[in-house]
Amino acid sequence: MSAIQMHYLKQMKRLKYKITLARILLFAGFITLWEVAAYAGWIDDFIFSSPSRIIKTLFAMISDGSIFYHTAVTVAETGISFALIVLLGVGTAILLWSSKTISAVLEPYLVLLNSLPKSALAPMIIVWLGNNAKAIIVTAISVGVFGTILNIYTSFAETDSDKILLIQTLGGSRKNILTKVVLPASLKTIISNMKVNIGLSLVGVIIGEFLAAKAGLGYLIIYGSQVFKMDWVAMSIVILCILSVILFKIVDFIEKIVL
After folding, report:
1. Where does the pLDDT of residue 79 fall: very low under 50, low under 70, confident under 90, or very high at 90 and above?
2. Are the CB atoms for 87 and 144 separated by under 8 Å?
3. Which of 44, 70, 91, 248 has the most CB atoms in a 10 Å sphere around its CB?
C-alpha cells in the first residue's frame, strides 16, 4: 500500500472519529440543556418532563416489572406484523409476477390502498376486529404491506430478460425461473424493504395501540397523555427510539449475512 493510500485511509478514519464524537457531543448537549432548562424553570418539567424524571420513572417501572411487560407486548406485536408483511409482500408479488392478468386486475387497487393514510383505516379495522391484539397487528400490516408488494413486484418485473430467456432455452420451468433468476436478483430489494418495514411495523403497532390496546408502549403514551403523566410519555418515546435502532440493526445484520 502506497503512502498516499495510507494517508487517505488515516484521513477517513479520523473523519469517522470526528463524526462519532460530534454525534455524542450533540446528544450529550441536548440532554444537558434539557435537564438544565427543567431544573432552572425555563420549561415546566411537569409538561416537558426531564432526563432525571424519565430515569426515575424508568427505575420505578423496572422495580415493579411493568415496563418489561409493556415493552414485550409492543416488540411481540411488531415482530409478528413484520414477519407477516414480509411473507404477504413476497407471496403476493410472486402471485402478480406469475400471472399478468392478476397483476393487471390488482395493481390499481394496490396503488390506491398504498396511497391511503393508514391512520384513517385503523379505526375501521378496530371496529371490524374488536379491541384486541389482532386489530393492532392488522393495522400494522396495513401500513407496510401494500408498498412492499408493489416494490418487490416491480423488482421481479425488471429482472434481466436475457437470463430468463437462457433458463427457458435450457428447458427450465416457470418455477426454475423464479427460484434461480427472479428471487436471487430481487434479494437486495427484499432486504431493503425489510429495513423499511421494520420501522413501519413499529409505527403501525403504535397507531393500533393508541386506539385499541390495554398494554404496550403506545398504550403508555396515550394513557400518560390523558392523565398528564408526561414522564410516562417521554420514557415510552425514548424506549421506542432505542427499540427502532435495535430492530433496524438486527435487519442490517441479516442483510450482511445474506448478501
Report:
1. very high
2. no
3. 70
The set of cell numbers assigned to 190 is: 427484499
Averaged confidence pLDDT in the chain: 90
Distances (CA, A) of 256 to 12, 14, 64, 179, 243: 22, 25, 38, 21, 20
Q: Residue 101 pLDDT > 70, yes or no?
A: yes
Report the chain's terminal Cα–Cα distance, integer Å. 28
- Three cell numbers at 8? 487517505
* Contact predicate 180/172, CB 8 Å: yes
Instruction: Provide the residue ranges of all domains of the chain, joining segments of one domain with +.
Output: 3-43, 54-258
Closest-CA residue to 215 (of 119, 76, 79): 76
Domain at 54-258, CATH from 1.10.3720.10, 3.90.226.10, 4.10.230.10, 2.60.40.1120: 1.10.3720.10
Reported as a single tens digit per residue, the pLDDT across 143-195 is 999 999 999 999 999 988 888 888 888 888 888 888 889 999 999 999 999 99
List the grid coordinates of 34: 434539557
Q: Read off the C-alpha cell for 2.
A: 502506497
Mean pLDDT of 42-67: 91
Q: What is the mean pLDDT of residues 47-51?
A: 90
CA separation for the pair 171, 173 (Å, rounded)? 7
